[in-house]
Amino acid sequence: SGNCKFAVCTNALGAGVNFSHIRAVLHFGATDSLLSYAQETGRAGRDGKHALASMFV
């Protein structure tokens, strides 16, 4: 159908890339810094809708 339900990404995708319709960002392990976490979790909700960010450590 061409629809992607999830993607596995590295932090290289965290800056400057905008995809609409991302509802959740899940981190498995801590990020390098709080700024990195903010950048990476900011990928979700870019279309103005509610989004979820979770970190599993």
UniProtKB/TrEMBL annotation:
Q: Which InterPro entries does the record cross-reference, listed alphabetically?
A: Helicase_C-like, P-loop_NTPase
Bilayer-crossing regions: none
Annotated GO CC locations: chromosome; cytoplasm; nucleus
Q: Which reaction does it catalyse?
A: Couples ATP hydrolysis with the unwinding of duplex DNA by translocating in the 3'-5' direction
Q: Where is the Helicase C-terminal domain?
A: 1-57
EC number(s) on record? Answer: 5.6.2.4
Q: What is this protein called?
A: DNA 3'-5' helicase
